[in-house]
Amino acid sequence: MILATGSLPDDSGFQRWLPGADYLPGIENGGVWSPEEVLRRDAKLGPSVVLDDEGGNWRGLGTAWVLAEQGKDVTIVTPEPLIGKELARTSAEAPLRGRLARRGVRVFTEHLIDHWSGDSVRIRNLLTGETSDLPASALALQPPTAPSIRCRAALPGRRSRLSATPPPPGRRLTPFTKGARQGFAI
Prior knowledge:
With about 190 residues, the protein is of the alpha/beta class. It has one domain: 3-Layer(bba) Sandwich (FAD/NAD(P)-binding domain), CATH 3.50.50.60. The chain is about 25% helix and about 20% strand. It is built from 5 helices and 10 strands. It has a 5-stranded parallel β-sheet with strand order 2-9-3-4-5. It has a 3-stranded antiparallel β-sheet with strand order 6-7-8, with no helix packed on it. A two-stranded antiparallel ribbon has the order 1-10. Strand 7 and strand 8 (about 130-135) form a beta hairpin. It is globular and about 55 Å long. The termini are close together.
C-alpha cells in the first residue's frame, strides 16, 4: 500500500536550476520565507521582497500580488523566459500581469538567485552568466516540496514499513512524481 502523506516546502533553498547545490548559499542568514509563511503573516518581511518564481504558478505570483497590494517593493526572479509559466494562456494571465505591472513589480526573467546575504540577493543571468545584486529586506522562495513524514508518529507499530522515497542522486523530484514512480514499480 502506498500512503500519500503530502508534502511541505523544502527549507534548504534548493533550486532546480542549480542542481549541483543542495542549498541556497547564504540561507543561514535568515529572512528567507516560503509563500505559505508570507500569506499566513508569519514572515517578518520589511519594505522590499525578492520573490523566486521557480514554480511558475499561483503560489509565487499570488504571493507577489498580495505583497504588492500591501505596498511592498516586490521583485520577481524566474529562471523561465516569463513569469507564471503555468498560467500562460489562461484567463488569469493577462489580468495578473497587469496588476503586477501597475503595482510596480519588477521582473527578472531567465535569472536565478545565486546567493542571499540577509539584505540583498545576487542574481545570475542564465543566458550571459552576469551577476548583479538587488537590495532586499526579505527573500520569498518558492522551493520544490519534500515529502512529509509526520504521519509516522501517528502510526505506532507500523514504522518499520513506512519509508519516504529518496530522490535520485543529483536530482529532486516532487513527492507526486516519486509516489507515481513507486506505484508503477509495484
